[in-house]
Each structure stands twice: as structure tokens, then as C-alpha cells.
Amino acid sequence: MPILVAAAVLVGVMITSTAIGPADLSSAAVIGVLLAHLPFLHFHSSASTIDQAIIWQIRLPRVILASLVGSMLALGGASYQGVFRNPLADPYLLGVAAGAGLGATIAIVTPSSFSELLPLAAFVGGVAAVTLTYVMGAKTARNSSSPSIILAGVAVAAIFTAIQTNVQQQHAADLQPVYSWILGSLSVATWSDVRLILPYVVLSAVVLLSHRRLLDVLRLGEEEALTLGVNPNRVRLIVVAAATLGTAAAVSVSGLIGFVGIIVPHLVRLTTNASYRVVMPVSLLSGASFLILADLFARMVEAPGEVPLGVVTAFIGGPFFILVLRSRRSNQGVL
Amino acid sequence: MTVPTTTDEATAKGRVELRDVDVHYDQTVALTGVSLHIMPGEWLGIIGANGAGKSTLLRAIARLVEYRGSIRIDDHDTGSMQRREFARLVAYVPQNPQFPAQMRAIDYVALGRTPHHGYFGAESPGDRELSAALLHRLDMSHLTLRQLDTMSGGELQRLVLARALVQEAPILLLDEPTSALDLGRRVEALELVDELRLERRLTIVSTLHDLTLAAQFTERVLLLSRGFVVADSTPELVLVEETLNRHFDVKVEILRSEQNNIVVIPRRSKLKGHHD
Fold it and tell me: Which of A179, A301, B153, B210 has its CA 20 to 30 A from that of B216?
């Protein structure tokens, strides 16, 4: 039931936010263009050619990209919180953001590098940072739910950020593009961005969703999981790997958009029954809706200018973060 | 309370056989040379002082601790089984189960079906029905959609039993199943276990602190002391003053109640009201 509601909300949000923008379009026009692009339907949109181009070439890729990035960040956040039994865990905690930031910075400051390499560099940086965290943490921890892996993540993130800052300072001329990437934005979204991350997001989401029941088994504790025939360490490793892969792919095209992985799963937990079997799919759908709306806000509030998307989510996320910390009910035991 | 006599005794599932089982925790020896046969449908109570190795024995059978020696179930070596395969034979209820807050009772019980799913398998409607039927059997239908953090200790104890039973394993290991319950709830819980044992021909192995309850419910008790089996027989033969005095380090008195139940009473070292 909550899944159907979240899906209906997402469809509504996608259509209306595609219609909203400097050129005023109707939801009917959006639906018409969508139908016209469906194969075998032979539907002809009644919208003008310019409107069709705005919808199909500018607005829709942006909305779709926002939904992919938002759903991945939210699902990744819910997964990390389940694995680490920590309400504030999210994909950035283990160094995805710092690693991707370093990768992106190196790609931007390297002369003669192609702009197409930026997502790849960010992706590699993010995955490398989490791998390093996991290896360092696993050496000192008896099992991967222990806080030592989170401490290792903090240390790795600090090291990567230090290197990134250093590289950035040595190439002061590139400060502007580095800075704007870090703040996160979907303003130049294209279908090729969508195509670039779609396979990773789909693969990651399939793996994570198929582990949603096992994340509930982990909540029974180490020993009960074992006596139910589940190897907790293997589940954790697979979930962390899948969440990292998907998140790194998402941030490689969007830049660093914070807090989605914390806000969305917590809101979902407060409104559903707090079983991962429901929290995971609903987080995926709601994360998409959330980021589409945040992006709509980012492009409308100072139109024709844009507020960086990362600033919008941090603006909502910061106060929310404090509320989560203060609310004991959502903080204890629900993971 | 006798072993259900069946014509298919030879094919009955749930026979457990331990041979020379040793358990070491780092330098300390927790269990030494334990050999024992547990028959299908039997209820074995494990008793002993704190640190005697009761939980360790249960956890060795559940494959939660490393052991030397062999543990076989229905002639299969458990050490070489897949965990999932093993989980279909043995269900385990720990002394202090974790109850995820805000999870609903039905969602919790359904987790017991995990060993029957493939690795990526989702819950089937059949799993839900089985879980609901078990809640009904344990008189908990009205609690199906309740969240765990709003339930009482007695309700949670029945719930964890439902979670273990939905696993449909012939062997049920219970670590101090009554430690968190009041007197009435204790008897209720153990009576339920006994009913289900007879109904489903379960083999039950449980550690029990309360010797009087052990005498009332089990047909065989195993007394452990410092990791050794020191007695293994009927409650009448094991629960005698001399044996208990020696292995519990306390003076006890054994009485018979009007219903001829064995009652174990520890003696105070000082009389009430007398202080030196």
C-alpha cells in the first residue's frame, strides 16, 4: 500500500515538474509528448515543435536524472543505515563524497582532459575511497557493524578531502568549475548522462531491493541471523558494495548532493511500519520525488538564475538532521 | 509427559548425537568430552550452576561456537552442512532476543521463514499465511499488526517462539526460555512448549535455571558442572540433595508437593531476621 502511494506521488511529481519552468507548459502537453515517444503507440503530440523540444530535450532528461540520483541516494542511505545499524549512516559516511570530489577535481584540473572523463574520475574516486575504508576498517573490526569502520570512513574522507583541497589550491584558475561541481547541480543534464548512470543505478537497485528482507534479518542480531541460515558479513559486504557502486555513479553526474540519504529513509520510517521490506522500495520512490522537487525549487526560486541543488538539500537537510538527532523515537532501535 | 510413542519411531526426525564435544574460549575450557543422544520428541533440560557450560552446550549444537568432536543430526554431520540447510533442522531461541522496534508482529514472525527462501527469495503469500496461522495457534491473532515495542514480556516470549516454530525445524533449542517472565507466564510458556512438542513431535533442548520447573516439564535432565556432564537421567534421579549440594555450591532441600512434584528449595546460610 505505501509502495503504491509513493509510486503515484512520483508519477504526479514527474509530470507536473516537467510542465513547470520559464516556458509555461501544461501537464497535458507533457503527457502528450511522453505518449508520442512510446513505441508502437503512433500517438502524435499536439504541442508545438518548440514545446516538444523543451520537454523532451531539456526538462525531461533533467527530471529523469533527478529521479535516478534521488532514488539512488535514498536507497543507498537506507541500505547503509541497515548495515551499520546507525541512523546517521549514509553513502557519504564511508568516503564516497570525498573520493568522488578528489576524482572530479583531478579530472577538471588536468589539462587537455575531456569533460566526458569527469564522471568516470568521480566514480573511480568514490569507489576507491570506500574500498580503502572497508579494508582499513575490516582490519581492526571484528565485524563490519562495528563503529571502527565508520571511524575509518571519517579518516579516509579527511585524507581524500585534504588531497583534494591541495590539488585545488595549486590550480586556482579551475576553482570555479571544481567548486560548482562540488555544490551539486543537474542544470546541464542530458540524455547521455541518463544513459551513463542508468545501468549502474538499475543494477545497484536490483541488488539492494533483493536484500531488503535480509536487512530485517540482520536486525535480529548476529547470532539469530546465523541460526536462520544467513551469513551477516556476506550480506553486509554485498549491500555496501552495491550501494557504493550506485551512489558513486549518481554523484559522478550530479556532484555532491547531501542529506537525501538521511532525510528520505527517516521520513519513510516515520510514516510506514519500519520494516526494510517496505522502507527500501518506498525510499527508492520517495527519494526520486524528493530530489525532483528540490531541483524544481533550485531552478525556480531565483529564476532565471539557479541555486545549487546541493545548497537546497543541505538547507532542508541541516535542520532535519538536528531534528533526527533530537528525536529519540526515530533514533533508537528502529534500525 | 512421555515421549510420544509412534510406529515410525525409526524414521522420526530430530535425533541429536554428540560425541566427545569440547569447547574452548581462548584459554578457558568451557565444555569437556560431552557425549549424548537426544531422541526425537524428547525434552532435555540442561541444568547447572552459572558458568557450568549450559549455554555453551546449546550454542555448540546451534553451531554458534567452534567445537571439537562431532555433532550429528539424524546421522548427518552438522559441521559440514550449509547454514541454510542446517537452519531447516534446528531453530534457536537466544536468552535475550533482539526485537526490532516498530516492526509489526507478523513481519517479525515471517523472518523465521528465511531458511526456506532462496538467497534473493521474497516472501510468498504462503509464508504470510503460515506466520498468521502460527500467531493464531499461539492465541496472538489480535496482535498480528501490533508493533513489537508496544508488547509485554510474555507476548514477546510467545512471539519469539512463533518465529522459531515457523522455521519448521524438528529440533528447537531454547536458552533460558523463561528468564524474563513472571511465575504465571513461566508456566504458561513451558506448557505451550510442551503442547507444541507433542503436537509437532519436536525435539526440545533447553537450559533451565529453575530446577522445580525443570522437574515439572522435562523428562530428562542433564547436569553440567565445570564443563563436564555429571548426571544425565530422569529428574527424580538427578535432582537429589547430595548431587545438587555438590554442584550448585549451596545446601538444598528436596520436597514433594501434594501433586508429587519435586520441589527444590535452597537453604539460607543465615536465618531470616538474624544478623551477626
Answer: B153
